[in-house]
Amino acid sequence: MQLGDSYWEDQLYLNITYNILDKQPTGFGNGGFSYGFSAGYIKDIPFNRRGNFSTGIGIGYNYDSFSHNLTPNNVDFTSNPDAISSQIGLHNLEFPIQIRWRTSDAVTYSFWRIYTGVKLSYNLSNNFTYTIDNEKFSFTNIDKYNNFQTGLELSVGYGAFNLYVYYGLTPMYKDAYIDNEKIDTTITKFGLIFFLL
């Protein structure tokens, strides 16, 4: 390839994040360290010949783990101060749709980038666990979990290493209440995303 040739920046990505549960019900917060990782493929579709302005459409897999202090069952949520080791494990398919700007060309492989857009996700499975009096409780694929979610994402950086932010727009739960208060919890993520050509 030569400078000025058209090219497509198709990429594999790997994402590692620190996760936060936002908009938790009154008196509830994040129970401890929460994390996530994603991996997938993004198809690049340039808008111009140089290829530094494009859109990207992708598919990937995402796993998220949350420490929390809500105790769910198959139909509702409760507050139990004796519950410990409360965890949520999520397996998702994700579909990023991005607008992409970069300082690249056909012969440059390290460059500045700003990629932003929306990420759609579909939950393959969710698992909620907690322990009370040494007895472990586990609930899988609870009805109140919102299987379809969307969020805004932004990645900024140079070369393979980039800062990453995700802000969830869709509540994690649907028609879920605790003590007559609606649960509008959303997901926020901060981390690093690695792009591999």
UniProtKB/TrEMBL annotation:
<feature type="domain" description="Outer membrane protein beta-barrel">
    <location>
        <begin position="6"/>
        <end position="172"/>
    </location>
</feature>
<dbReference type="InterPro" id="IPR025665">
    <property type="entry name" value="Beta-barrel_OMP_2"/>
</dbReference>
<dbReference type="Pfam" id="PF13568">
    <property type="entry name" value="OMP_b-brl_2"/>
</dbReference>
<protein>
    <submittedName>
        <fullName>Outer membrane protein with beta-barrel domain</fullName>
    </submittedName>
</protein>
